Amino acid sequence: MDGRSEFLCGVVEGFYGRPWSMEQRKVLFQWMQRWELNTYLYGPKDDLKHRLLWREVYSPEEEGQLHTLIVESEKRGLRFVYSLSPGQDIVFSSSCDLSLLKRKLRQVSKLGCQAFAILFDDIDHSLCQADSQAFSSFAHAQVSVANEIYRFLGEPPVFLFCPTEYCGSLCSPSVSKSPYLMTVGEDLLVCVCVCVSNNDVCVSECVFFILFCVFLTMVCVDEEHQYCPEMALSTALHDWMEELSQPLQPGCVCVVLKRSQLSLISTVHPDVDSDLSEGGDGEEREKKLHNNQFQQGPGQPRSPGGVLCVEKAPLSESQIRLLVGLHYLPHEHGPSAQRLLQDLTWLKEHCHLVSANDKKGPPQKAEEWRGRAAGFLGVCEEIAALHSSVVSGVSKAVLYDLYPYVWDLRNTALVAKAFICWLGCGTTTGAELLGVESEPWVFKGGVSGELQMLLPIGSNSELFSHPPPLFPTSRLYNIRPYHNKDKAELYCMVRQLQQGAQGSPDSSPAHPDLIGDRCLGPCLALCPEYSMVLEDELGVCGCVLGVVDVRSFAKRCQTCWMPAMRDKYPPRTGHANSQEVLQQMEEDQGEYPDSLLYHFPSQLRLDALPDLVDISVTRCLLTALLTALKANGSHGVFCEMQPTDRMRLDFLTKLGFLEIIRGEARHREGVVLGRLL
User: Fold this and answer.
1) Helix (H) / strand (E) containing 187
2) Which intervals hold domain GH84 (predicted)?
3) 122 is catalytic
4) pTM for this structure?
């Protein structure tokens, strides 16, 4: 051990969560050799015979795996410490249990292991009746067993004992006055080492590849043997980048999933049934989009509205720093997370500076708000790029460790960015922006949960509670308020959806805007401030339109929108189908009953192309609109669709929408779904 065995320094594998594989442990041994560590303690919770089934011996196959680990650790100059946790159900006074404990450790000893640990952490302090009669205290019982096992193994050079009170927060009444620790200190044999933690336990779950960065920051010192945290972090991040970018091992297959393998999510009009079968092809859409009338000129990035168009590349050091800052410590945020939370708080509290109702405010204050908003939006875009780079630029083993966390934060950042962009349009009254209606415990932890608490979603935190997709995608998405230049592309999108649902070409080629005018036109013309657009690297791929007050909106439609449509599609020149759609527009303006609008005064419509890979962005799109409606005082929202649209019904039901009495729909076959805000 090169003289380093007196000071044990290494890794304890004893966490809960997704276990490490045997191959990962071998990689860990290589890292430890590189960092000049000397000890590995084996105690993973997926090894049932380490804790739950500690009485059972290992099978021949398990013996082979354990022996391989022991040999591999010795090749790397490491001391392999085998640990056993019998404390959950051992009878300390039972000679049978003691014999089984000895049999188990004898088996491991024959595999070549020369160092052991007996762990009594995370167990109850109580003794059974037989033990209460044999021992004066819980500590005496543990020490008695530990001493006997130590002698039985021939007093090995390394024998560790983990007490039940292994950290300061578990000591009663304190570390210095704990009767339990006093007994352990007095009665435990001198050569047995006691394992303790700090005042608290940081994590109960450890992601394998993140361990690389954590340990490297602790073992890095400069030439003068001084520890510099910033230098240690920079060195760790640089080395970690190389480790993250390792190519796939031979035999691994990279699966590419096209967006066509997921289904359409679109709340089309109730009398338009849609095809939700697995169909559309992402490549076909890309070909159509690049050949249609909205194609941009050569050399121009296809990014209407500012979608972040970057070439996929491995993770950069700045992205790794962002990742570290966003997932810093269990109870402390890093610089990037702190900035994100501070900016969102300030922008929300001072949104009146850019409100249309505050025209008398000083212009420099509005510029200050917009400048700070630009910085916040920039960080949100960096998070989106980080998500893309994690998916495309790291090995698959690392990807599935990091992806749930990065994906969750990406989705929260999408909604937060859309909310700030919407505030910047100056359409908020500011009435519902401050305060959180829900108890803090309903939100998840970390920076993602704290960002959600700052959004005006009220008691709707479940909008963010959905699992990540099975097939990660590196595609970049953006959610933003609607702009007038989006109208043509949105009209084209709903026309494609209509054709796909009916399985026939456009029945009104002379009037290409007809479907768009019916489905989207009223909202885009009369209340564009509640229209959100979803776009990816190819362009617009979804939208959600909202009406904050259905009663007043219906009146405006009758006085403003319908006369314009009658002029646009006059009977003397109109096509038969256009006159039919115009008649349907008239029927659309029928009033909803007061019993519905009393609880659900707002309405929405959601459309998305069928080739979205990550369906969670559609949930984010809907959440962004609900946030805007809630911010301006709405307490309920509804949408209408066909009862045969089972996929859309299921999609909205999972987001908290409930079916309302079907007789309250304007169309006889229509179904109304609503949810409170």
Assistant:
1) helix 179-187
2) 7-333
3) yes
4) 0.71
